[in-house]
Amino acid sequence: MQPTPFMIDRKQARRRPDLGNCHIRHNPYHRNYRRPPLHLPLPRGLPKILVAGIQGTANGRIDPIDYHLHISTMASSSLSAGQVSELQVSGDFAIKSEAVAPKLDTSQWPLLLKNYDKLLVRSSHFTPIPSGVSPLKRDLQTYVKSGVINLDKPSNPSSHEVVAWLKRILRVEKTGHSGTLDPKVTGCLIVCIDRATRLVKSQQGAGKEYVCVVRFHDKVAGGEQAVARALETLTGALFQRPPLISAVKRQLRVRTIYESKLVEYDNERNLGVFWVSCEAGTYIRTLCVHLGLLLGVGAHMQELRRVRSGITGENDDIVSMHDVLDAQWVYDNTRDESYLRRVIRPLESLLTNFKRIVVKDSAVNAVCYGAKLMIPGLLRYEADIEVHEEVVLMTTKGEAIAIGIAMMSTVDLASCDHGVVAKIKRCIMNRDLYPRRWGLGPKAQEKKKMIKKGELDKYGKANEATPSDWKKGYVDYNAASDAEGLVATQPESSAMAVDAQPAAPAQASITEIPSESDKKRKRKSEAAEDAAPAVEADGEKKKKKKVKTEDGVEREETAEERAARKAEKKAKKEAKAAA
């Protein structure tokens, strides 16, 4: 069966409305240019109405590849197997080179890599380093030691007891939790293990959500509506004093209630259930007392459950103590890691609400050593970063490096070619997981060789063996600033001092902020000055020691009397030693 050509042009489109507007423009930006009619092969016996589905792109252009794909999908039900095979043989099926790369869909990527394609791109080029691994693919020992557990705390044991039990069950060195729950309170308790304990402080300050059962001491006059109005009144910044039985000092403090909602009210039993979203450190027990005072009947907290801590809620992989115990038992007896990996989550799961900054692999270890992130080490960044906002620095594999403070906004990151992107607030990744990539420039390499030869001391400073060419050409900026300070404070002659007097205020304004080394030097000199008068005073006391005469008059001891007294004392000491 020979394929017959068919032609779709503007005239046919006018005669056959069912074909739609199928004329093709070669250049969509040129209004008057029209592409010549396109001849495409059509198998004999194919219903022409199927051509209506072949529309190409939105501007009416028909691509041969799209045509063949439409033919194969739409006509597969009406064609025989022989016709389909002949169509596949006769068609020119191939992937053509395109200038536009296909869009990457990262909506299902894990943890910090989710929606990675929506980040703004500073640079796409970097040299991958075969170090580090995706958080979900870490070996089990590393996975456990950098993991967190969303634990459903049972009633009766305290938070510290629960954390100590988990430490013993998992056989780890360190554990911490995201905020103390009272012994009778249940719900979300985020337990951090080993390396993840570096995130404990940030999690303790995160917001919390609770569901509380409150018991009123008498019938509420307005019923459910009055309780709802009272709860609405107790929102915003409130004064609170910790309860009588508490582990902190009972000082008046301000805590914020973000939102509260009455879930249920039983007028017969005088019980109410409400949900509250509040600041960390809020006492719900005190809130219940205030609610009773506001309604004029008195109230106390009957039961409490935490349903959310930070961004982790009771529906986010919450596990019980039995789950943790069983998971460790399964691994110990069957070497099956799956249960343990399900119970423990990577620490990156606590950082998904932070704005992200992606760092080059070559800059990762420098950040781990406390260096600030500079513009050359930046790959991608979030769209709405503000100055002094907390951000998370991450690798290209999705590992969290550190929590930092942004020093530039998104606009600055897009326009600047140098400067500090972020300074480090809390480092999370261990050092030397990635190789060192600093000190590899020509000047640094030469400096290392000179230190090895002894031409520089171990700190890289000049000594007696340093060549004169190095002293002339190399600029040590720290030493230069010290020298400027010495020149400003120690003029060579009185004439220079007289000339320098008018310029003193300007110099003072320049050196207004002293460096750390200057502060240390100043403290040492002040300590020496304080010690020197004390020594002089002691000497003066010894010189001015007074003796009494026979008449009872005090006078100063002479040098001969002092020498005789010392000789007598020495003789007594020797006689005592001989005895």
From TrEMBL:
<dbReference type="InterPro" id="IPR002478">
    <property type="entry name" value="PUA"/>
</dbReference>
<dbReference type="GO" id="GO:0000495">
    <property type="term" value="P:box H/ACA sno(s)RNA 3'-end processing"/>
</dbReference>
<protein>
    <recommendedName>
        <fullName>H/ACA ribonucleoprotein complex subunit CBF5</fullName>
    </recommendedName>
</protein>
<feature type="compositionally biased region" description="Basic and acidic residues">
    <location>
        <begin position="548"/>
        <end position="566"/>
    </location>
</feature>
<dbReference type="InterPro" id="IPR004802">
    <property type="entry name" value="tRNA_PsdUridine_synth_B_fam"/>
</dbReference>
<dbReference type="InterPro" id="IPR012960">
    <property type="entry name" value="Dyskerin-like"/>
</dbReference>
<dbReference type="GO" id="GO:0031429">
    <property type="term" value="C:box H/ACA snoRNP complex"/>
</dbReference>
<dbReference type="InterPro" id="IPR020103">
    <property type="entry name" value="PsdUridine_synth_cat_dom_sf"/>
</dbReference>
<dbReference type="GO" id="GO:1990481">
    <property type="term" value="P:mRNA pseudouridine synthesis"/>
</dbReference>
<feature type="domain" description="PUA">
    <location>
        <begin position="355"/>
        <end position="429"/>
    </location>
</feature>
<dbReference type="Pfam" id="PF08068">
    <property type="entry name" value="DKCLD"/>
</dbReference>
<dbReference type="GO" id="GO:0031120">
    <property type="term" value="P:snRNA pseudouridine synthesis"/>
</dbReference>
<dbReference type="GO" id="GO:0031118">
    <property type="term" value="P:rRNA pseudouridine synthesis"/>
</dbReference>
<feature type="region of interest" description="Disordered">
    <location>
        <begin position="491"/>
        <end position="579"/>
    </location>
</feature>
<keyword id="KW-0413">Isomerase</keyword>
<comment type="similarity">
    <text>Belongs to the pseudouridine synthase TruB family.</text>
</comment>
<dbReference type="GO" id="GO:0009982">
    <property type="term" value="F:pseudouridine synthase activity"/>
</dbReference>
<dbReference type="Pfam" id="PF01472">
    <property type="entry name" value="PUA"/>
</dbReference>
<dbReference type="Pfam" id="PF16198">
    <property type="entry name" value="TruB_C_2"/>
</dbReference>
<dbReference type="InterPro" id="IPR032819">
    <property type="entry name" value="TruB_C"/>
</dbReference>
<dbReference type="InterPro" id="IPR004521">
    <property type="entry name" value="Uncharacterised_CHP00451"/>
</dbReference>
<dbReference type="InterPro" id="IPR002501">
    <property type="entry name" value="PsdUridine_synth_N"/>
</dbReference>
<dbReference type="InterPro" id="IPR036974">
    <property type="entry name" value="PUA_sf"/>
</dbReference>
<feature type="domain" description="Dyskerin-like">
    <location>
        <begin position="105"/>
        <end position="163"/>
    </location>
</feature>
<dbReference type="Pfam" id="PF01509">
    <property type="entry name" value="TruB_N"/>
</dbReference>
<dbReference type="InterPro" id="IPR015947">
    <property type="entry name" value="PUA-like_sf"/>
</dbReference>
<dbReference type="GO" id="GO:0003723">
    <property type="term" value="F:RNA binding"/>
</dbReference>
